[in-house]
Amino acid sequence: MNYCFALVVGVALLAAGPARAADDGAATFNSTCAGCHGEDGAGDTVVGKATGVPDLRSSQVQGAPDSRLADVIENGTSRMPAFKSSLTDDQVKTLIAHVRALAR
User: Which residue from 57, 53, 89 is spatially nearest to 73, judged by alpha carbons?
Assistant: First the structure.
């Protein structure tokens, strides 16, 4: 009986993994990224002016490997600050999961 309960709980936790990662990343996104990219990640379409802020839902961003997204988050770009010193590895991973969820 205990084995069945543990199995059901384990399967439920595994199934919730990506969704939970996106939920955890939402808080980091809202406090770190939404100011420029918008709450929905739309970038310039939310800002309403040509600032060069990319749409995180775009095929270009969504098609990039996680390693590229982590590099941009950690090291920044010419327009985006680096967050390596302010985000943990786990926060970067959950943030990437949230960015992936924006396209859905």
Answer: 89
Q: What pTM was computed for the model? A: 0.74
Residue-wise pLDDT tens digits, 87-98: 999 999 999 999
Give me Rg for the CA atoms of the chain.
Answer: 16
Kindly compute the dihedral angle of the four CA atoms of residues 33, 65, 58, 21, in this order, to the nearest 10 degrees: -50
Q: Where are the domains of the chain?
A: 2-102
* Homologous superfamily of domain range 2-102: Cytochrome c-like domain (1.10.760.10)
Among 104, 98, 84, smallest CA distance to 29 is for 98
Tokens of 1: 């009986």
